[in-house]
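Anyone able to model this chain together with adenosine-5'-diphosphate?
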Amino acid sequence: MKKIALVFVLAVFVPSLVLALLAVRSLRDQQLILERQQSLLYQGVADSMAKEADNLLGRMQHEFGEQVETLLANGQAPEVARSFDERLRPTCAAAEVGFAVTLNGVLISPSPVSRPAAQLFCADFGKFLGNRESAEVYSWKTKNGANYNNSKLIVSDNAANSPAQSPVAANDLEQLTKNSNLGKGQQLRNVYPQQGAPMATDNNAQQISKVASSEAEFRELVGDETEGTIARFVENKLNVLLWHRSPHDTNLVFGAELSLQHLKENLQPVVEQLDPALCGDIAVALLDDTARPVAVSKAGFQANWKHPFVATEVGEALPHWEMAVYLLDPEKLAKSAQTLKLTLGLLIVMLLAAIGAGGWLIVTDLNRQLALARQKTDFVSNVSHELKTPLTSIRMFSELLAEGRVIEPEKRQSYLNIITAEASRLTRLINNVLDFSRMERGEKKYNFQKCDLVDLVRETVETYRPHLESNGFRVHATWPESAVMINCDRDALAQVVVNLLSNAEKYSHGQKEIAVEIGSVPEPLPHVEVRIMDCGTGVPRGCEERIFEQFYRAHDSLSSGIQGSGLGLTLARQIARAHGGDVAYRPREGGGSCFTLRLPLGAFTGSKSQAESTQ
Ligand code: ADP
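re: yes, here you go
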């Protein structure tokens, strides 16, 4: 038993527990896994929209070049350059200010004394365009109309003008700035995607902007190129300059300060391109360098702009601008993770419960089988003893009689009676064992026929009475007046009665009174009861049902000295049930046992004469 239990624990229980533990551990990570899956999906959305915004700027650059060429086609280059600001603005909505500058730094247009916007432009960019000042800039240029989608170099402004030092960003970034080893021109981002986003795996990559500034003069930036973009922060405000060199006069550089208002209006449709299937789950916002929304996909949407679910920097054309994705219902993710957790948790609990219940059933069955095996061993020794005792008596008394040493007729008669009783005890035991084995194999045959139960019981009791009385028992039997006709196997029922009488004798504990009663009971279904009562100690508490199990003995042969096989009541109950009835035990009032053989009263019930007439 111990070995089997050990095998069960090692082969089933321990692996199940380990599996359950692993499953519980994976449950804890469910939310993170879901977040990662979603963040990968939404990162793709942010990336493609950021690319769209970048392309828009490239298109603007290209259109600006075409407009310059158109203006130059309609006039002399020096003439166009002198009034470039005035000529450009009516045709180019994207231009805030138009400028023309020679490669050696003479600002031809706009005039520093013209309109206020032009004055401001000259103040901010005059020295830089005149090559008298180098500034921290982000620059992108193409060679002779190369694809404007190509990558761009973006550079930041001087330290004083860096957005990292703007009032909005300063507080949040102060600590991080201290802890980071930023390279030249690098700076920290204003926007930090939530935990779970793919970038979160590399904290440094998440915090540091991918675009970096460099310090240069305008002439250096232009070099031999034909067009480009320069982004520069002046007093925390982004300024984007588009420039173009025409083949008409390569000494002249025409440019425009991009209207940010115009740019924002053009960027709005980009974020509105969001896939309708995702509109119910996310909102996309284009954030400027101070993490303020410039364009939002969903009107009226508000969020903690600095903490999107995922974000992507637009690129060098718009330094530190980001395309950010926000969850419309951040709780939804937690809820679905919770639901998933609950479902999986429940499954694990159910599996564990099933394993536990299975284990319990196996152990119970094992216990039962072991008890049965023990009982069978006891049975063999009990039966051997049961056979040996009567055989010894029979041999001893028959030898005495055979030797002719017993002369007194009473003694001889008494010995003969003992031999007869012991022989019938042997017969009873062998019958029980044979019947039991027939029943086990399902081969027990009943010969049903109508007969009078009163007659049957009376005959059996009267046959057994001499044996009981010779052992000092008094048998009180009360018989009903009328016959009780039932359909039964006469011999089988007689065997039940004998078994019950024999038990009443065996477990009498010196109280040698036995009573037999027959009575009809109308409720709940009409049936007849044969009650056999003794005045012994009764069946010990808790064993009332178990005594009907095969080989079970409440009174152990060793401790009680009472011989038995543990089959008598098993057979009695099986025979009774084959007749549609049962055998039950209840304690007798005043002490002792009362065993009741209950049989149904059906179509064959009636007087003896009626029953006979039906035969
Ligand atoms: P056995 O051969 O042991 O008598 P049974 O199947 O006839 O086998 O009875 C099963 C057990 O029920 C007995 O061992 C005994 O403990 C208990 N029992 C049966 N009849 C009586 C009774 N009249 N009084 C007390 N206990 C009884």
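Residues 27-328 form one domain.
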